[in-house]
């Protein structure tokens, strides 16, 4: 059985060293949702927490700060320091108890974090304690980090942002795949994460499907109806979106974060960290980077509502530069890993370099496939954040809907072009040029 309370060392679980199976999913029969009153009692005897917060739980202060769609998030502070406690709720917080959601998502988040920590050390929060039964993870309190989406709305810059995120995507994608891992380890891990059914179902519905019909929980800004009708009437585009869903559901190439938007990144002016991989799945290599690029493009399109005329052009240029660097750094790191860590069953050196044959063409073809998938996901993510249930603050914080709707309309039409033309678009420069053109268009 899976232990219900496990102290964790950073990077303790190396890639593929400890295959797990679905029979090890935690039992949460004695689960209890924590409150600011009960949390210290639960953690007050946990050595890994005491060490970081202070020995006397009565000296701790606890606040609940969760503003996401799903979970409870507490900050626990004491005389020694602070930790973050994330606990899954048995339902979708955004919607309420009418939408039950398994507590096992904390199990998948914990296991995704251990793998990401091994594949890109220092990029995800350190885990101090995992309580499987309580669906609770105690982790590093990132401070003075704030959510990247808020920084983009505020017009703040982050040093090395594109490079760090591109490298994260490349390292996690490459090192969890059959390009690198022993295939038995990848298969065991893929089998484990295949049980993250309900979180994948959210993505399958909310991201890939609901935007394209009048689904019950959908909502969109007043004034967007003509564009929404165009999209929902586009049979060819809907079919393309479903082709992308088929890949998401069945092409388990690598362990993806599964929800890598700018709300899953925390930054200071000089440091970038990735959080919240509870949607982790074995899926297409282009999924995470495509979702990330979409969120930078949405930040770009929303800027006219957030910046003065004097600041607008410069800040939009910076977002474009970061987006370009996300992709160029992904490619550079992927190429480096191809040359140095290609130890899996795919494109083995025994078939190429050892025969005196270059694998360069194979690598370029692989990157082209990843890019095409990423661009398709990018377009779909740009649609779902405007048409489906869970919107983003880049647009939602624009109170005047007569300002918001035309900006969202540009985003929707750009998303459509990306989905339909993804096979013909061969460079990120082309994507950025499309965005610059669309940014001038009067769509509504
Ligand atoms: C019901 S959950 C809606 C969204 O919130 C999460 O952050 C994911 O992005 C999900 O799609
Ligand atoms: Mg999240």
Structural class: alpha+beta
Q: What amount of the residues lies in strands?
A: 5-15%
Mean pLDDT across all amino acids: 95
Specify the helix fraction band: 40-55%
Please state the CA-atom Rg, rounded to the nearest Å: 22 Å
Bound small molecules, deduplicated: 5-S-methyl-5-thio-alpha-D-ribofuranose, magnesium ion
Gross geometry: globular
Low-confidence stretches: 1-17
CATH superfamily of the largest domain: Aminoglycoside phosphotransferase (APH), C-terminal lobe
Task: Please list the strands of the largest sheet in the order they lie side by side.
Answer: 1-7-8-4-3-2
Number of separate structural domains: 2
Report the order of strands and helices. EHHEEEEEHEEEHHHHHHEEEEHHHHHH
Number of strands: 13
Under the CATH scheme, which class of the largest domain? Answer: Alpha Beta
How widely separated are the two ends? 58 Å
CATH architecture of the largest domain: Alpha-Beta Complex
Q: What assembly state would you assign to the polypeptide chains in this entry?
A: single chain
Largest sheet: 6 strands, antiparallel
Helix segment count?
Answer: 15
The CATH topology of the largest domain is given as: Aminoglycoside 3'-phosphotransferase, Chain: A, domain 2
